[in-house]
Amino acid sequence: MIIYFHGFGSVGDTPKSFKLKEKFGADNVIAPDLPIDPIEVIKLVDDIVNNLTNCNDIVFVGTSLGGFYANYFSKKYRLNCVLINPSTNPSLTLKRKLGLNTNYATKKTFEVKQEYIDSWREMEEEVLNTDNSLVHLFLAKNDEVLNYHAALNMFFDSHEIKITDNGGHRYDMHWDKVIEVISEL
Fold first, then answer.
1. Domain 2-184: assigned CATH number
2. How do residues 76-104 score in pLDDT, each as one tens digit?
3. Which of 3, 5, 91, 105 is deepest in the core (most CB within 10 A)?
């Protein structure tokens, strides 16, 4: 079972999640629309995991902020994760998004509150200096949103690290490589 986490201001149904469903079957991929409140994300994902019959086969996959969540839940449940240009410290990088924002897909507005920044900070502390042996990391040097060095420094001891010169933050052009790694888990 794959649980795919989208990035900030996006939705679960994206070309990336469609490709995962195409490869692994729609019944084997869960791609929820994540609420902006990190506490609600934790409740949502815990409910998903607790309702699955076989939790040991889960692979958490995430891009950007979704990569942060994939890492968080990987550590919580001790399961593999595949991170693509992950956010390592959303409490800092998303501070500039305090206030109203627009979802890129739905065009609906949502608000980033200080309490969310505080929750992300607490989650960051929970995963700081933890075992990265279940992390499979993909980074693009030309990521225009997040500095790939931050993720490389945090996940230097990952099970697997793949760095490309190109691909940008969205990493669309290398998504087949991500699918290959997921297939091997």
1. 3.40.50.1820
2. 999 999 999 999 999 999 999 999 999 99
3. 5
Chain mean position to CA 146: 13
Give the span between the Cα atoms of 69 and 35, in whole angstroms: 12
The half-sphere exposure of 18 on its side-chain side, counting CA atoms within 13 A, is 5
All structural domains of the chain with their residue ranges: 2-184
Distance CA 36, CA 165 (A): 31
Q: How does 2-41 read in b/e, with b if 16+ C-beta sit within 10 Å?
A: bbbbbbbbbbbebebbebbbebbeeeebbbbebebbbeeb
Decide: 112 and 93 in contact? Cβ < 8 Å: no
- State pLDDT tens for residues 109-130: 999 999 999 999 999 999 988 9
